[in-house]
Design goal:
It holds the Pfam family Lactamase_B_2. It comes from Streptomyces hazeniae. The protein is α/β, with parallel strands linked by helices.
C-alpha cells in the first residue's frame, strides 16, 4: 500500500500531457527522459568520495551572512520612464516591467526551498515585500520545477488573481495538482512561443535537470526564457550550465536590453548544470553580441545556501568579470530596482555590509548602502520607452536577517 503523496511534491505528467512530452524532439524515448542540448552530468561529480562532498557541504564557514542583509522595499507606484525596469526580489525572482506589462519570473516567497516547512535551505533575508503588496501581474514565468524556482504556496497565492502562468512542458502537472485549471497556464517546449497581454514569451534551451521527489524521472522540461514587447526584450536564464547554444538564442531572439543570468550555486562537483560568474558573463556576451548597452543582472545567489562557495562570492566575482569584459553590470540589493537604459546602474557591493568579501564588513560599502548610494559602472545613452505600468522609482530600506 503506497503512502499519499504530499501536494508539495506535485504530480507526474500523465495522459495527453505525457503523450505530448513523448512527441517532443527533446525527449529521449529510450531513457524516458528529457535530454540536454549538450550532455550534462546531473549527479554530483565528486573527485573523492560522496562522504567528502557531504563534509564540504556541511561546512558553514562564510556560507551565510555574518550580519543582517538589508533589503529594500521597492517603490512600484510609478511606471518606468524608459518602459523597462527590473526589480530583483532575491534568488531568481525578478519583476520585469516591460512596455506596460508586468512579468514575474520564478516567484519564491517561501521561507525554505523545500517540500517541507521545517527543514531545507532557509532564506538569508525575507522577501523585500509581501506578495500581496506586489500589485497586479500580467504573467508568471517559471523556468523549471525545482523548489527554489517553483514554490507551491507562492503559486497558490498568485493563482487567486487572474494572472496567467507560462511554464516548461510537463510542469502543468504540478499546477493541476495544486488546483489550477488548464486554461490558467500555458506549457511550452523549447523554441515554442505564446502571446500573453501583448508580450511574446519563448522557451529557449537550458542545460539543467528537473524533479521534486526522491525519484526524478526527468519528465518535466527546464528552460530559459525570452520575453519580447513592442519596444524591449529581456532574457532569463533559469538554471543552466554553460553551452554554446546561447549564441544561437542570441542570434534568433536578441540582442537584449537586459539579461538575468544564473551565477550562483556553482561547484566543481556539478560543473555542467550551474554556471560560474565568469561563465555567466560569457553567456551574456553570447546573447547580446556587440550590444554595448545591454545590462547583466546576476540572479540565483545571495538568498539561499545551495553550494560550497561563500555566499557573497558570486557578487565579488561578477564585479571583476564584468569589468574585464566591458559588460554593464547591475547588482541591486534584494528589492532594488533599475532601468537598463539608465546611466547610473546599482553596483555598490551591498553584501560587504553583511560580512561579505572574506567575512569582513566594508565600512564604505555599509555607508553607501545606508545612504542608498550606488556607483556608476558605465554610461549608456538614455533609452526610449514604451508605456509603463506601476513601478518607477526608488526603494525604501529595511534591515532584516534570517537565522537557521
Amino acid at each position: 500500500m503506497s503512502l499519499p503523496r504530499l501536494a508539495s511534491f506535485g504530480a507526474e505528467p500523465a495522459g495527453e500531457r505525457l503523450r505530448r512530452i513523448e512527441r517532443s524532439p527533446h525527449y529521449d524515448a529510450a531513457t524516458g527522459t528529457f535530454r540536454n542540448p549538450v550532455h550534462a552530468a546531473t549527479a554530483p561529480r565528486a573527485e573523492g568520495s560522496r562522504l567528502e562532498m557531504a563534509r564540504v557541504m556541511l561546512n558553514r564557514k562564510e556560507r551565510r551572512p555574518a550580519a543582517p542583509v538589508r533589503v529594500r522595499r521597492p517603490d512600484l507606484a510609478e511606471p518606468p520612464a524608459s518602459g523597462l525596469r527590473l526589480t530583483w526580489l532575491g534568488h531568481s525572482t525578478v519583476l520585469a516591467e516591460i512596455d506596460g506589462r508586468r512579468v514575474l519570473f520564478d516567484p519564491v516567497w517561501g521561507e525554505r526551498c523545500s517540500p517541507f516547512t521545517f527543514v531545507g535551505p532557509r532564506r538569508y533575508h525575507p522577501p523585500p515585500l509581501p506578495l500581496a503588496a506586489l500589485g497586479g501581474v500580467d504573467v508568471v514565468v517559471v523556468s523549471h520545477d525545482h523548489y527554489d524556482h517553483l514554490d507551491m504556496p507562492t503559486i497558490r497565492a498568485l493563482a487567486r488573481s487572474d494572472v496567467h502562468f507560462v511554464v516548461p512542458l510537463g510542469v502543468g502537472a504540478h499546477l493541476e495538482r495544486w488546483k489550477l485549471r488548464p486554461d490558467r497556464f500555458t506549457e511550452l517546449d523549447w523554441h515554442e512561443s505564446t502571446r500573453v497581454a501583448g508580450l511574446t514569451l519563448t522557451a529557449t534551451p537550458a542545460r539543467h535537470f528537473c524533479g521534486r521527489g526522491l525519484r526524478n524521472r526527468q519528465r518535466t522540461l527546464w528552460a530559459s526564457w525570452v520575453v519580447t514587447g513592442p519596444d524591449h526584450r529581456v532574457f532569463h536564464s533559469g538554471d543552466t550550465g554553460y553551452f554554446a547554444g546561447f549564441a544561437d538564442t542570441g542570434s534568433a531572439h536578441g540582442p537584449f536590453d537586459a539579461t538575468m543570468i544564473q551565477v550562483g550555486a556553482y561547484s566543481d562537483y556539478w560543473p555542467d548544470i550551474h554556471m560560474t560568474p565568469e561563465e555567466g558573463v560569457r553567456t551574456h556576451l553570447d546573447l547580446c553580441g556587440t550590444a554595448a548597452d545591454s545590462v547583466l543582472l546576476p540572479i540565483h545567489w545571495g538568498t539561499f545556501n545551495l553550494a560550497p562557495h561563500p555566499w557573497y562570492e558570486p557578487g565579488e566575482r561578477m564585479l571583476s568579470a564584468t569589468s574585464e569584459a566591458g559588460v554593464r553590470l547591475a547588482v541591486p540589493p534584494p528589492g532594488g530596482s533599475f532601468e537598463p537604459s539608465s546611466r547610473d546602474l546599482p553596483d555598490t557591493p551591498w553584501w560587504r555590509a553583511s560580512g561579505g568579501a572574506g567575512g569582513r564588513t566594508s565600512p564604505a560599502a555599509a555607508v553607501g548602502e545606508r545612504a542608498g548610494e550606488g556607483a556608476v559602472r558605465r554610461s549608456a545613452p538614455d533609452g526610449g520607452g514604451g508605456k509603463g505600468t506601476p513601478g518607477r522609482g526608488g526603494t525604501s530600506e529595511t534591515s532584516a536577517a534570517q537565522s537557521g
